[in-house]
Write a structure and sequence with these properties.
This protein is of the alpha/beta class. Helices cover about 35% and strands about 20% of the residues. The strands form three sheets. Strands 2-9-1-10-11-12 form a six-stranded parallel sheet, sandwiched between helices. The chain has a four-stranded mixed sheet with strand order 3-6-7-8. Strands 4-5 form a two-stranded antiparallel ribbon. It comes from Sorangium cellulosum.
């Protein structure tokens, strides 16, 4: 049962590394540029030792959500990434609302995931109370069947937050037909009904050359293509992990960073069917309130 009829778009991927992060960033940039109040949200992230960012309040989130926050003209906030699994040496650290929670690794897995789902729901509610639109980035694939009952990022999110889903597949390697059709076929009927469109990302060549491919995918899935996005090279910071990503004063405010952010967002938005995107994802969502939503308060870090 949905917690509320929130204005959420969930960006799903057929696998990791298909481009969910940059598609989410681009949608945040586009909606913000339209004068709409929008926030990014990554319920649960996985981070290497160099993939985190400290917010102004001292909380730790994944650097990708910091990039997405800047795209939405917002200050990064722990509610944008309430749960992060972080590799620390040979151990796994669970960061909850910006702070390590070592006790979570000591309790049974079922209790741990229930606790983390409650944290995620509270963060989403706080964002939903402040912003008209929330662009959610999923994690990995939504059809990892052996761990689906522990899902905190994909189908559970769509159902809990009543989100419409945008499925991203990558054409960088062969197999985009199998990945999109296969992913959709492994979803339940209820889950599939939430997928309102798909994107072909990282296409090498002229997107018009894939017109037959789009037609085949639309015919076989009954779901419209929102765009074929050409491969974008030369991305060094935005949506990347690295030691430099932990230096917000030199990365997030730097001229080169903003130029790269705009280049990424513009490239993706230019190749999306914005009319169809609005019709399928935004038509029934609340109208934008153009007033400043104000700063987010920081939840108590436990």
């Amino acid at each position: 049962m949905a917690i509320r009829n929130s204005a959420s778009i969930l960006v799903l991927g057929t696998s990791s590394l298909v481009g969910k992060t940059l598609v989410t960033l681009a949608l945040c940039r586009w909606l913000s540029g339209q004068g709409k109040s929008v926030a990014p949200f990554k319920p649960m992230s996985m981070s290497s030792g160099h993939g985190s960012y400290r917010t102004a309040s001292g909380g730790e989130i994944h650097v990708h959500q910091a990039h997405q926050a800047v795209a939405a003209n917002l200050e990064p906030h722990v509610d944008m990434n309430p749960v992060m699994f972080k590799a620390v040496g040979n151990k796994l650290e669970i960061v909850v609302c910006g702070a390590p929670s070592p006790g979570l690794t000591e309790i049974p897995a079922s209790h741990r995931y229930n606790s983390l789902r409650a944290v995620i729901a509270k963060s989403h509610r706080r964002l939903a109370d402040r912003f008209d639109h929330i662009v959610i980035e999923g994690c990995g694939s939504p059809v990892e069947l052996n761990i689906k009952e522990r899902d905190m990022s994909n189908c559970w999110v769509a159902e809990t937050f009543d989100a419409r889903c945008l499925l991203v597949g990558s054409a960088e390697q062969t197999g985009v037909f199998a990945s999109i059709i296969g992913t959709l076929s492994l979803l339940t009927e209820s889950e599939r009904s939430r997928v309102a469109g798909f994107i072909i990302n990282k296409f090498h060549g002229d997107p018009s050359e894939f017109a037959d491919g789009v037609r085949i995918l639309e015919d076989k899935t009954g779901i419209p293509c929102m765009g074929v996005i050409p491969f974008l090279s030369g991305i060094t910071v935005v949506g990347q992990e690295g030691e430099a990503a932990s230096a917000p004063e030199t990365i997030l405010s730097g001229e080169g960073f903003m130029e790269e952010l705009d280049r990424c967002a513009d490239h993706i938005i230019k190749h999306l069917n914005l009319w169809l995107l609005e019709e399928r994802f935004l038509a029934k969502l609340p109208s934008a309130q153009l007033s400043d939503p104000g700063p987010l308060s920081n939840p108590a870090i436990q």
